[in-house]
Design goal:
The structure is a homodimer. The first copy, chain A, is α+β, with helices and mostly antiparallel strands. Among the domains of chain A are: 155 residues, Butyryl-CoA Dehydrogenase, subunit A, domain 2; 305 residues, Butyryl-CoA Dehydrogenase, subunit A, domain 3. Chain A is built from 22 helices and 13 strands. In chain A, a hairpin with a 2-residue loop joins strand 5 and strand 6. Chains A and B meet through helix 4, strand 7, helix 9, helix 12 and helix 15 of A and helix 4, strand 7, helix 9, helix 12 and helix 15 of B.
């Protein structure tokens, strides 16, 4: 039986106002309290040029249907993937039309804010080709890829292997007779897996496979391999390829798997810029210097660290704006009023909420500035390496590994905390935090698992410490690590001099504290390993702690350096003042959270830790009036945030109801399942009622 | 242009084995190391009766297509909702056929493990009617709801109001002339929001609205209101109702909104068991004793705490089984071998992984047993209240609020940590952890926001402390709180006597430590408020810390009590031994994580904290051989886990590939968007190549 009325009537909300005071009024109050110029801080953080470009591109995207962002809330995976293809195609067209640079496309993707099928073509396929191709291969692969005549991915991870590249199973055996390589997947676990852009999109792949020549295993090497027909996109014979299925996020990209069945590729497939396999003889010619590629990893990681900062900034923007509007309970000690009537207190006025959210704002600025420091240091290091000076590389590489690990973990935790700080509505996708969280999740695992990375960093710290003890380190080549480790070795029993909370507001004191605590951890670990004979595996918990201690120091130092080195032209007095407070909040709140390590090292006393705790709350209170302006200065347009709660204008509840009116279930009066699943029971009841009347 | 080949060929994996050793072999090794009987521990934890029922129901569900669980991975929201309706309908039919009890249905939902459209009918509508209806209403509403002739929900939260019920905006004005109530939504923010089962399913609702009589506001009261036609399911005139749109999880249920436009309901709609509005005069008759309803909240929260334990248990089951199979890197100090060849080390053998995962196993057992203690105490309290003794209620209510807050936060954190401990594959929905996480998220917000709840608990602790100082507490009525607060007051300068790590393995020492630390926090807070004149708002950060300290003590104590009070028949010596180790691990790891508070209170010294840290690692090593068996004892069937990684048999990689073959994108050789979005660029390249040949 079909219902007899017109069922296709969309549900509309009545035209009512939210209960006063309204969002725009409350945000207006907040913004009037700013002690600094929002635009000036934005310019300091991003640079004027970047902000101009961003605004220009934003206007283009907002006018293009291919970049519309609301529909994604309501679509299933297939529809979202199709829309992502459309966006990729339109991006290529606009790039060609408007002559977009790489940085322009970075801004496009930042604003559009969703992985898409071509992503790995840009982020891994092209850069790998650029770095690893010889001249012939540049023409054959790279230049065609630049024109999108071939679409590629980077196939390294396998079903059974992620972090340990040396354990990869896929083989590439050199066949001298035909001057080919035979790529093969010997086990089910050898299947390439998780490879973005591979599942349904790519027709080429850079494949990492163990190079086998005359029975000898030379370990994993990159091959550029055609995998699908350029005519009709069918997988080539010998290749099994497909999508790995639904994920927690990232469902707008086709992460794929691929298996090879004795698949032959020509000699030219072996990427030969650094390493060669001589045709015919199969002679293996080693690379000259592998260290150069570590430099690139630093840059990749600086990008990830910057992304972590933006994730925190975005979460804080949504949560702080909404917290200024959302009201719960009346604070009886200090009731808030609106037009002479007591109103419920905006949740931003509760100290617990301020403590949670302002520390995240501080984290965001800290991480963004640290990524900029990292990029600057990368530039210096590249210059030095060109001159043959590799002395900065190890320190930079170690810090960048650890910072990737620490800041991505911080970002996820902070983003989720922001979501919860939005109360129930944080759980709605209309908060704009749902996809952001889901799509950010893999960052704690990929580009180096966060736990595995800590081992790299700590190994370097231990090595440096041992070398300092042995007097082997050239003290001319000072860097952050040698500096704080030397200071500790010179004075291992130093203690914190602060006798009041205000004395903690001192960069030197703070850096000494973080340096001492990191060095103490390193020293303890060296003792465990070298004197107490413990195995590496048995101390892994401390290895991770030491890495974190080091990286927190790097973050704190970067923040202070960034402010100190800014010219008066770049950073006005009021902007400098608020950043200084944020840097203190970042440093002291970080110290407070891990205060046990500062206490156990003997550097801080219990009494001092109480002063510290109070000082953090004082800083929060000091920064509180700038809360909304500090997130405004992150300069995220509403298009980017795609959030009903985080809108710049504060019309939160109107936005929520507008989104809800678009929900597909609300386009019909009676839900599809009614006849089959609900009606039988309800009508049984009506029947019973009628029967009892008889 | 259409591709000319048959595109509808599903992708199949080649028939290959994973690289040896295989999952089943590795799990077999793990299981052979168990020091205790897995079934015996399961029986102790759940009771034999429950396990039997679970097995019986499991067999039924596995045979019913309506309860199939794989398809959900691949479905969009609409399909998943329809399938959920089907499941609800079949559950009702099977309940009627097989005479399922409430506990049977609890098991059904536990195993099926997904919210469904009728959920709130059972969890809120029926219980509210049962508790709040007078005899006439029981017949009119409750009995019909039991037969599913009416389907209801519980409409309390509003767009602008969650935690603060007193701030609700919806009004119900008594109209003496017609003996009706007029329900009305004055603002946009008055819209009911988040109401499960309301969006598209319910035809009735219990609506919380401010009772207005003769211009006087009596605050929120419950009304049972028809909202949709029983004939054709259309919303009744005066009601705007619909679904609130997509959420982070919970998308298989229709959380809804509802607005009333001067909507009239008859006098009988006012739920009148405790409170009455006299017909005609509108005289308001107050409830006799509201405290009785706090008892029910304790039971609800005990259920939530139990659920938190199961969430932790499930995460640990998946992560530990998979960690025994997944191998990464060779541990050079102690290489693992298989058939005389060195293999990569299973990640469970890395101490960092053990530390992460075994502490979660300990948390899981701690929380499950604490929920059982809470339920037992609820029973005792109900008996006492019936006798007019309300002396247990406040303590029980305070602890249950705090435990809800603490354990749901622990559960989410632990579940996410388990997901990350699975490496890359943890991000696949086939890990079985994705939906689990998404659907569990709201627990930190609903049934009392976790931050707001801490205030309830801490308020009680402060009141008790002040009352003890004033000598007002009847020391005959001892409970946990008065005991540890009194001990502290008697001896506020006591310190920890341990001089070796092993001395921490002592329940009395541990309980003293947790009691001291909690009491110290309470004392400090009382001083801040009562002596230093600080406002409640200014100390909220410490309020939350104090609540956590109290609840950790409750958890630790419950664990020890549960073991100590178990008879030898219920708990054999080996099972007792392993539980004892877990209880120590739980207590000491919890202490270690918050060791700063133990240090600052002066109870623990820095040297002792080092002993503690080492003791935790020793406990982890002690428990390690039982890792897989301890999660086996949680007794989760594969049907429940729905996880490729957590399967009992260990065939992880085969399961991953089987799931992947079901992915809709893999049913076609060439992806749908190819012609439109990929081909133009690739064929432009072919054209260029042909042109250059000319």
């Amino acid at each position: 039986m079909v219902t007899s009325f017109n069922n296709n009537v969309p549900t509309k909300f009545p035209k009512l106002q939210p209960k006063a005071p309204n969002g725009p009024d409350l945000l207006q109050i907040e913004r009037s309290k700013a002690s600094f110029d929002v635009d000036a801080l934005s310019k300091f953080t991003y640079g004027e040029e970047f902000l101009k470009r961003k605004d220009k591109i934003l206007k283009i995207l907002e006018a293009e249907p291919a970049f519309e962002k609301t529909q994604r809330f309501f679509q299933g995976r297939h529809e979202r993937l199709m829309h992502a293809y459309e966006k990729d195609k339109r991006t290529i067209e606009l790039s060609e039309e408007l002559g977009w640079t790489d940085e322009d496309r970075y801004i496009v993707n930042l604003l559009y804010d969703q992985p898409s099928p071509y992503s790995l073509h840009y982020t891994m396929f092209l850069p790998t080709l650029k770095n690893q191709c010889n001249d012939e291969q540049i023409k054959l692969f790279y230049e065609r890829a630049l024109r999108h005549e071939i679409i590629g991915c980077y196939a390294q991870t396998e079903l059974g292997h992620g972090s340990n590249i040396q354990g990869l199973e896929t083989t590439a055996t050199y066949i001298p007779e035909t001057n080919e390589f035979e790529i093969h997947s010997p086990h089910l676990t050898s299947s390439k897996w998780w490879i973005g852009t591979l599942g349904k999109t790519a027709n080429y792949a850079v494949v990492m496979a163990r190079l086998m020549i005359h029975g000898k295993d030379y370990g994993p090497h990159p091959f550029c391999v055609q995998i699908r027909s350029l005519e009709d996109h069918r997988p080539l014979p010998g290749i099994t390829v497909g999508d790995i299925g639904p994920k927690f996020g990232y469902n707008t990209i086709d992460n794929g798997f691929m298996m090879f069945n004795h698949y032959r590729v020509p000699h030219i497939a072996f990427l030969a810029k650094f390493t060669q396999v001589k045709p015919g003889t199969g002679e293996y010619v080693k690379p000259v210097n592998a260290r150069l590629s570590y430099g690139t990893m630093v840059l990749t990681r600086a990008g990830i660290v910057n992304g972590s900062g933006l994730v925190l900034a975005r979460g804080a923007t949504v949560a702080i704006r909404y917290s200024a509007i959302r009201r719960q309970f009346v604070d009886l000690d200090e009731p808030r009023k609106w037009r002479n009537e007591i109103i419920e207190t905006p949740v931003i006025d509760y100290t617990q909420q301020q403590y949670r959210l302002l520390s995240i704002v501080a984290n965001a600025y800290a991480v963004i500035y640290a990524s900029q420091e990292l990029r600057d240091q990368y530039e210096v290091n590249q210059e030095q390496m060109q001159k043959g000076n590799f002395s900065f590389l190890a320190d930079l590489h170690a810090s960048s590994s650890g910072l990737k690990s620490l800041t991505t973990t911080m970002a996820l935790e902070g983003l989720e905390d922001c979501r919860r700080a939005c109360g129930g509505h944080g759980f709605s996708l209309f908060s704009g935090l749902g996809f952001a969280y889901q799509d950010y999740l893999p960052f704690v695992t990929f580009e180096g698992d966060n736990y595995v990375l800590t081992q790299q960093t700590t190994r370097y710290l231990l090595k440096t410490f041992r070398s300092l003890i042995a007097g082997k380190t050239n003290t001319e080549q000072k860097n952050l690590t040698t500096t704080y480790l030397s200071q500790y070795l010179q004075n291992p029993n130093t203690t914190c001099p602060a006798i009041s909370g205000a004395e903690f507001l001192n960069p030197e004191l703070i850096l000494t504290a973080f340096g001492y605590r990191a060095a103490y951890g390193v020293a303890q670990l060296v003792e465990e390993l070298d004197q107490n004979g413990r195995s590496w595996n048995s101390v892994l918990v401390d290895v991770a702690r030491v890495c974190k201690a080091h990286c927190q120091l790097v973050l704190v130092q970067s923040f202070f350096v960034r402010i100190q080195q800014a010219s008066e032209k770049d950073l006005g007095p009021e902007e400098r003042k608020v950043l200084q407070s944020l840097a203190y909040l970042f440093a002291l709140h970080t110290m407070e959270k891990d205060v046990a390590e500062f206490l156990v090292s003997g550097y801080l006393s219990a009494a001092q830790s109480k002063l510290l705790k109070r000082q953090v709350l004082d800083l929060v209170a000091l920064i509180r009036p700038n809360a909304v302006s500090l997130v405004d200065a992150f300069s995220f347009p509403d298009y980017f945030l795609a959030s009903a709660l985080g809108r710049y204008d504060g019309n939160v509840y109107e936005a929520m109801t507008e989104y809800v009116e678009k929900e597909p279930l609300n386009q019909k009066v009676v839900v599809d399942g009614y006849e089959k699943y609900i009606k039988p029971f309800v009508h049984r009841g009506l029947q019973r009622k009628n029967d009892s009347k008889l």
